[in-house]
Design brief:
The chain is an alpha+beta fold and 329 residues long. The chain folds into 2 domains: 130 residues, no CATH class; 186 residues, no CATH class. Helix content is 33%, strand content 27%. A 5-stranded antiparallel beta sheet has the order 1-2-3-5-4. The longest helix has 18 residues.
């Protein structure tokens, strides 16, 4: 498959600088072949990006999103005037997200052979909620936590990309982060140099009753100039075979969309992975420790786990994670 992502990012980045010399309805364009169709990448006089797809009949216009529209645009191509379905970004803060939207359109059309204009319309509908989520922001703690979970996802995806995504149930407000049958991984992330503690958010989170295998994975994260952003981690997961649209849906539950404002502000790397098997001897507080007569009256319990007091972990043995899930590394 052609490297659409690189082509799209490079053209938009370079053309936004050159667009300062444009005026009115002028565009900088570059053909990008998708199957038997030549679409056009374009940047307008305001420095905003577009994907122009040759129209077959009337253009199905879509202005329901505040930031990205599909409209009809006529261009002089040689001696003829041609009509295009113009997928255009109207919000400068979403330009990097738009890069990924365009790449998704091109990749899907190239892989499936579907009509490019139909893929373009459908993808905008599928991404509508992502465009809304991209206007938000994540706390420093949330970014650290998500980086740790994506690191685990990427490792699991090396052997089973679809199963890895299916197992990542944490974004769906499940009790634990990864669950495959009766096997589970709870991921906690901490910044190197911070307290050797992790926060447990409920009595259920480390309750292993009914599970065949259960592991606590603590990812030590460090800020690193040449590290990876969350967006880079998303691209890595996709390169390993994780479906981008389904992954985007999971991430939107976190309030994150790759390319959103601030995505590149923080780059990180994994300094260390530590894992502990959670069994009957593990020092966790669970519902089993609270008398049944009082448990129903307890609305919520959170507590901190001191990592220096819970026994010796396995260190940097990432294969523990795939073994826990029950599939080969």
């Amino acid at each position: 498959m052609p490297d659409f992502r690189s082509s799209v990012e490079t053209f938009f980045a370079l053309s936004m600088e050159k667009s300062r010399g444009l005026s009115g309805t002028q565009l900088i364009t570059q053909p990008i072949p998708v199957g038997y169709v030549d679409a056009l990448l374009a940047v307008d006089a305001e420095g905003l990006p577009h994907l122009l797809v040759p129209a077959r009949g009337a253009v199905a216009q879509d202005r329901r999103s505040a930031a990205v529209w599909i409209t009809s645009r006529e261009l002089q191509v040689g001696e003829q005037v041609e009509t295009f379905a113009d997928l255009g970004c109207r919000d400068r803060d979403l330009v990097r997200v738009f890069d990924r939207l365009v790449s998704e359109v091109l990749e899907v059309a190239d892989r499936t052979g579907e009509r490019l204009d139909l893929v373009q319309s459908r993808t905008l509908v599928e991404w509508r909620h992502l465009l809304s989520a991209a206007r938000g922001s994540l706390s420093h703690e949330a970014v650290t936590g998500l980086f740790g979970e994506l690191s685990v996802l990427c490792h699991l995806a090396q052997s089973q990309p679809q199963l890895a995504l299916d197992a990542w149930v944490g974004p769906n407000l499940a009790v634990r982060d990864f669950l495959h049958g009766q096997r589970s991984i709870e991921v906690k992330s901490r910044v190197v140099g911070s307290e050797e503690r992790v926060r447990i958010s409920s009595l259920d989170q480390l309750d292993g009753r009914g599970l065949e295998r259960f592991v606590l994975a603590v990812v030590d994260v460090q800020d690193h100039e040449f590290g990876q952003s969350l967006g880079h981690m998303v691209d890595r997961a996709v390169s390993l075979g994780v479906p981008r649209l389904a992954l985007n849906d999971r991430l939107a539950n976190f309030g994150f969309v790759a390319g959103m404002v601030g995505d590149d502000d923080r780059r990180m790397s994994v300094a260390r992975l530590r894992t502990w098997t959670i069994d009957a001897s593990f020092p966790a507080l669970t519902g089993a420790d609270v008398p049944a007569s009082t448990l129903s009256a307890i609305v919520g319990v959170t507590y901190a786990l001191d990592l220096t007091q819970i026994g010796e972990p396995s260190i940097d043995d990432w294969d523990v994670l795939t073994a826990t899930m029950g599939w080969a590394a």
